Amino acid sequence: MKSQPHPSISRIASSSTRQPSPSPPLDHPLLFNPTTLLFSSTRRLPRLLNATTLSPPLHNSFHNLIKSKRRQKISSPERFSRNNANKFKIFIWLLNKLQFILHSLVHTESWAIDLSWDIIARFGKQQDMPRDFFTDFVKVAQDEGRHFTLLAARLEELGSHYGALPAHDGLWDSAMATSNDLLARLAIEHCVHEARGLDVLPTTISRFRNNNDYKTADLLESVIYPEEITHCAAGMLI
Fold first, then answer.
1. Which of 126, 152, 211, 237 has its CA 20 to 30 A from that of 64?
2. Looking at the whole model, is its pTM more than 0.90?
3. Which residues have CB under 8 Å from 5's CB, separation 6+?
4. What are the distances in angstroms from CA 49 to CA 71, 107, 192, 225?
């Protein structure tokens, strides 16, 4: 059975420790006005919930459940992504290290897309944020989406595909831990995780080049790396 490295979002509304307010953020007109950015960001919920295959009635029922206030948080299955690889997958990894590394990069880009929209949806209404804050993260989401598409296509060229290998939930674990603190989210996700990714990327590029995979190395070096450098500063001038 193939792995499913994209677990569901577990907290996008209020924290489980926060008392419901008379008018929850999800009911604010801005969130349901199709002309606003906040509305657009919340429309990503079906994708975040792995619900893209649901029928329209089920999509509508889910939307109505949130809007009616009967659901103050969005739950997820007890088991997240299948990151406990069995012996067979470990053997495959040993044979295809480059595929495993590239798959991990694709998975990271997938999380980065969701986290860009999550920070807009989660903190956009709660905080008095300047326009540049939203501009920064829309650009980040656009960049990460392009990175995901390019890397996923390259992974398929190498004979694999996204979801074929085990993956980690580290980025989303940190997002959950910082779900109530914007400054903590910026510090952990962008000043720590993004920076660490930049630190190891030159080594990753060298691995691909040393194994004669010049196409992947050039993609990482000429497209991914320069754009990722700009993401560390996203939302920091607030």
1. 126
2. no
3. 81, 82, 83, 107, 110, 162, 163, 165, 166, 167
4. 15, 16, 26, 29
Q: Residue 177 corresponds to which tokens in the numbers above?
A: 């831990």
Per-residue pLDDT of the chain in tens (238 residues, 90 and over written 9): 444 443 333 333 333 333 333 333 444 444 444 455 566 565 554 444 443 333 344 334 444 444 454 444 444 444 444 444 455 555 555 557 889 899 999 999 988 888 888 888 888 776 677 788 888 888 888 888 899 999 999 999 999 999 888 877 788 888 888 888 888 888 888 778 888 888 899 999 999 999 999 999 999 999 999 888 888 777 666 5
Tell me if 80 sits within 8 A of 141, measured CB to CB: no
Distance CA 231, CA 227 (A): 7
Domains of the chain are: 107-235 (1.20.1260)
Quick check: 76 and 10 in contact, CB under 8 A? Answer: yes
Instruction: Fill in the DSSP letter of residue 55.
Output: -
Q: How far is CA 19 from CA 72, 124, 178, in A?
A: 10, 20, 18
